Amino acid sequence: MYLPHAMFSIKADLDNKVKSVIGSELLEQYGIEYFRGASTLGALSPDAIHYLLDNGHVFELNKGETLFSYNEPGNSFFVILKGCIQFFKIRENKAKHIRDYQFGQEIGSVAMIGLHNRVGDSVASENCIILQVSCSVFYGLHETLPTDFGILLLNLSREMARRLRESDDKLADHKATDTCEHY
User: Which PROSITE patterns does the record match to this protein (predicted)?
Assistant: First the structure.
């Protein structure tokens, strides 16, 4: 059972990169098409994928480890390269499971782009490989490969739009009794 901010939760040491993975080795192991199959990285050039894997922080999380916690600075986003991350929204000191993030999806870009702290906890529900894209790496992609930066921004926008639509659907289902006749 997940407990928010539990002292039993293992926090991945993102600064010391205890379980870092070398991006070029990962690229060699899985191949470029594997990464291009990720919704966040889809349609990016091989140069852009190399840039992100070489300049981003690639690391492993074991099942049960925390990716980020409530109220931490939102100065990066994370792409799930393998595995599944559960997100728990914190409201009134309670954690509510919102969604699972799978291969290719990103988590954390809303906080980074919105310039606010994390609004929940994220925990690996299985062993994962994660790509962390910091603000400086994000900006560096803009400077180095501006066309790919635009594609990445479009991919991030699409993911946000999908999540917004999913949230709207859940809200509509929840409020199904508050309906009026459709014209």
Answer: CNMP_BINDING_3
Q: What six digits make up the tokens of 120?
A: 């929940």
- Asked if residue 9 has pLDDT above 80, the reply is no
Q: Which residues pair with 128 in a beta bridge?
A: 61
pTM over 0.70: yes
Number of domains in the chain: 1
Distance CA(134)–CA(129), nearest Å, equals 16
Q: What is the mean pLDDT of residues 148-177?
A: 88
Q: How far apart (Å, rounded) are the C-alpha atoms in residues 91 and 132?
A: 25
CA angle 72, 17, 75 (to 5 degrees): 30
Residue 145's domain spans which residues?
Answer: 10-169
CATH number at residue 163: 2.60.120.10
Residue 131 lies in a domain: yes
